[in-house]
Design brief:
The complex is a heterodimer. Chain A has two domains: 63 residues; 74 residues, no CATH class. Chain A contains four helices and no strands. In chain A, helix 1 packs antiparallel against helix 2 and helix 3 packs across helix 4. Chain A is flat and about 55 Å long. Chain B is mainly α. Chain B folds into two domains: 459 residues, no CATH class; 80 residues, no CATH class. In chain B, helix 4 crosses helix 5 and helix 6 packs across helix 13. The chains are: A mainly alpha, B mainly alpha. The interface between A and B is large, with 64 and 56 residues.
Amino acid sequence: MRIRSDTGIGVVLLVFCGIMFLQTQEIPEPLFGSAGAAFFPTVLLVLLTPLSAALFLHGLIGDLRARGAPAGAPARRSFGAWFADYRNVIVSFLLFFLFVALLEPIGYMLSGFLFLFAMQAFLGPRSWRKMIQHALVSAGVVLFLWVMFRWVLVVLLPEGDIFY
Amino acid sequence: MLENVLGAFVQVFQFKLLALITVGTLAGIVAGAIPGFTITMAIVLTLPFTFGMSPVEGLSTMLGVFVGGFSGGLISGTLLGIPGTPSSVATTFDGFPLARRGHPGLALGVGVWSSFFGGLIGAVLLMSFAPPLALIGLWFGPWEYFALIVFALTIIASLSGESLLKGGIAGVLGLLLAMVGEDAITATSRFSFGIDDLNQGFSILPVLIGLFAFSQLLSDVERKEGAQSALIEAKAETIKIEHWEAIRTIFRQPLNLIRSSLIGVFIGALPAAGGTISNVLSYDQSKKASKHPEKYGTGIPDGVIASEAANNGTAGGALITMMALGIPGDIVTAIMLGALLIHNVVPGPTFITEEPMLAYGIFMAFFVAHFVMIALQAVGLRVFLKITKIPKYVLASTILFFCAIGVFALNNIVFDIWVLFGFGVLGYVMKKFGFPLAPMIIGVVLGTIAELNLNRAYMSNPDPWVFFTRPISLFFLILAAISLVFPFSQRHGAAPWVRFFLPVGLVAVSAPFWITVGWPMAGGALFVAAGLFVLWRRLRAPGAALGAVTRTTIGNGE
């Protein structure tokens, strides 16, 4: 299921190198006796650029060979098939994104419970019994970590505008 | 010395001190086992509790946390594939596959007992050779440090898996990521793109957890049916911690254990080079010295022994420089140094002779903490094994949540959770496109230290030739060159040039010895003699190709 598109990644990396090179031009000149803040990043970019170009060429040669190959090459998949393959991962990322976005407005307790419950409800088996189990596990984990961090380790947890 | 050791023995074997070491070790194991909760954080949180204690009690408690933390990191690394601390990154390379292949008990057993033996070797060396070993660290200037880091970075070549090119790109990308934020010398902000939070750069923890945890956890739940299964499909009652088998496995390769422990102690004794470097360096050396390097990364105990013996040995090494010279080997010993200063105790070259009871008390507490650690692990591991029976989707959700909170707790800023998320996406995507993640992690960890020492070297003397005229610096650079070519020699085992690789390497390593004066030149002569001997043997057996290994399939740490 590995995606092979080294050509595209090579292009992205070369664009990245270009942007970073431009950024190094904005770094102030070094102070007397110092190599300067731009020196080491520039060295690294000088290394990364040919590596990226090599990846691009490697991918391009591979693509050209694949184009010349006879039948038997894998057919291009539809967006629907691609989404079906990565649905669990995409939804998990989305739920985590929402959890972090909601952390400051609604607080650790509510956002944590909602994230844990939504993740388990989406990824796990769906039945009323399981939903109750997921809710209990979510509440238990959120409360346990709250007690551990707040009272045992005396570490602050994000407090929301609405709730803890 | 014997009198001091006996005095320290009596001092440490009191109920209160043993209880404090036990509590500290337990806290360390738990902290180390939690991804996102570093040993440093655990030590920092322990510090306020030590204010009311005597110096030896306070330091003993902190040493318990230190020792426990190093060994605790292997639990999550082995069972979940997520290193609890950066010091156990290399443990996951073989520990996790070994557990997944149905041997979690052996993987954990080998890890715990390697930690124990590595730590004991470190403790014995700490007590015996603290002053002379620490003197080597005193010779290091920025040139030597930079050369050491260059050597450590060549590990990337070994960790690159199928594609050296992609491994190299990942490594340089990691180094570049470490450049984000203010540079350590001039405090000039770079690559922040107008985002204030980026002026301080990325915290290592969210980057590490994002790259490792997200990609691993989300790979686990990629398929619906896979997500609803347990992490390890075996009945709980069939999983037993195989202590005796683990000890036998370790004793079958004493060289690996001793070499890894010594690497750990040596790296720990160097200021600013801690377990993060030693576990990966030791793993790499173990693989290179092995007769079956192609099996590394597939789940063999050898890799676990190398990593765990080294990281616990590092603790002993870090204490050597702290106790003998008053120089912290890493951030953890820096905090311990602070704890001693709070009690008006100033470690330095005269510390051991002026305060022998306290110094040897600390040595002994470090020694005893390893026995406490093994006892607690023997009991606690059974509980941790139950984790493997929980369905992956419950485990993944809980750990993701836990990582987010752990990352927040480090600096109390939500931005760190966004960093975790960003690197989680990046790690997953990179993995899907065939990029190994371990080189990137190495780059992120070593980037800042590399830049700092390069700048210091430049400020002291802008002539780059100095790197080649200082013997220790030249020594590490030659090792780096050998290390860089080594994976190619493995891949092209049948090529004619490969048979000359080791002899030429040995002769090259002799070069730094020739630019010194006096007795080190004898070392140079030994290396040349060894090189010529190996060459003679290989020329006598023309049919035997060096390195039967044709291709490295080193684990990528993911």
